[in-house]
Amino acid sequence: MEGGCQNKSMFPHTVQDVRTTPTLKVLTSERINQYALIRRIPRNTGGTPHVDVSIYKDTTNDKDVLIKAVKRKQVEDKYRQLRRNFQAGNNLPNGEQSIRKEIDVLHRLRNCPHVIQLLETVDDPNNDRVFLVLEYMSGGEIQWRNEHDEPTLTIEQTRRIFRDATIGLQYLHHLNIIHRDIKPANLVWSFDHSIVKIIDFGISHHHEEDAVCTGSSTRFYEKKYSSPSLFTNAELTKQRGTGYFMAPEVAWTPPDTTMSSPSIDTLSATIHTDAFQIPAKRPEITKAIDVWALGVTLYCFLFGKFPFQITSDGNDNQHHTRYMLFREICTSDWMIPDTMSANNLPTGGRVAKTHSEVIHLLDCMLRKDPNTRIGIAGVKVSGHSLFSLSDLQLIPL
């Protein structure tokens, strides 16, 4: 391995060991151990029902932290347990398995200033929740469009966000971690908007057999959250993540799939001629799905809208809408408005010979075939005058 993921001199970044606390000494509506509640963060529409997120004050150092409280067992787990005859292997309920996966991933991410840091886990077996104490990024998530679906970020702001996200994603991929849900809502600002960090590793995946990093950041792997059976390749084929940002290989359905729905005539009438054919076999799910999602995110920042959208056809069935969106992602090309960013800079269009190099970068990131899609290292040295990362000190990979 060239360089190494333990080279702390590359960044002015203090790495602290994650504390593991096995006992809830204090638990009230206003306090968790030494953490005093500041405010609760409302769940978004469609948010995860078994997760509560709040901002607390660490009374030992007067610093604000974000605490994610995750239920060990979800309602679905109880029904599964009634049906299941447990066999040898990982018999964790699905909810607790998800917690362990997230903690396992977060413990690996100890040496990059563009990835959120886990500070402590509070895991009392006598309580039905596990508490993840994370650093708090008070600048909030990236706001990238207004009520008219127009971009609100300038080119310089987009460049800074994109650079930080690329460095963070490069670090994840170096550790063989696939985030699986890169999107604007999972990129957050520091208080002064000087740094962007990647957050939310709830569905992230780690290739245990490909581990490349040793040293202090891996000491936790001996503990109970780390297990080779936590991460399976079968898990990667599940359509997890946010629909608009899913890569074609994640959104894939067999090309001869039909919908057992009365709306099939409507569906046939609304699907336009396909620009791309759906492959007969699902392509392998790899780190390339994160590059695609980062490309969609970049498109959102530049144009204030998604590259793949569907228009209403009068059918509000959730499965129908999902199918239509996935079909759009897998078979349609994306278009480019005449201008980009809040600066209203000309783009040159989607296919014009004079289009800007940022369009070429999007072309490379939004290729349907993951085997020809640019890798994160290629994004880093794309050469575009605004988005080149060559002037940054990066993790030496």
Short description:
Pfam families: Pkinase (PF00069). The chain is of the alpha+beta class. It has helices spanning 75-83, 94-108, 155-174, 233-236, 248-251, 264-270, 288-303, 318-331, 357-365, 376-380, and strands at residues 19-21, 27-28, 31-32, 35-41, 51-58, 63-71, 118-122, 129-135, 140-141, 177-178, 187-189, 196-198, 205-206, 339-340, 345-346.
First CA to last CA: what distance?
8 Å
Radius of gyration: 22 Å
Low-pLDDT stretches: 1-12, 77-91, 210-225, 258-272, 392-397
Number of domains: 2
CATH topology category name of the largest domain: Transferase(Phosphotransferase), domain 1
Strand line-up of the largest beta sheet: 1-7-8-6-5-4-3-2
How would you sum up this structure, described in words?
- One of its GO terms (molecular function) is ATP binding.
- Pfam families: Pkinase.
- One of its GO terms (cellular component) is nucleus.
- This is Kinase-like domain-containing protein.
- The chain has helices spanning about 75-85, 95-110, 155-175, 235, 250, 265-270, 290-305, 320-330, 355-365, 375-380, and strands at about 20, 25-30, 30, 35-40, 50-60, 65-70, 120, 130-135, 140, 175-180, 185-190, 195-200, 205, 340, 345.
- The chain is of the alpha+beta class.
- The chain folds into 2 domains: about 15-135, 2-Layer Sandwich (Phosphorylase Kinase, domain 1), CATH 3.30.200; about 135-205 and about 240-395, Transferase(Phosphotransferase), domain 1 (Orthogonal Bundle), CATH 1.10.510.
- The strands form 4 sheets. An 8-stranded mixed sheet has the order 1-7-8-6-5-4-3-2, covered by helices on one side. A 3-stranded antiparallel sheet has the order 9-11-12. It has a two-stranded antiparallel ribbon with strand order 10-13.
- β14 and β15 form a beta hairpin.
- The relative contact order is 0.13.
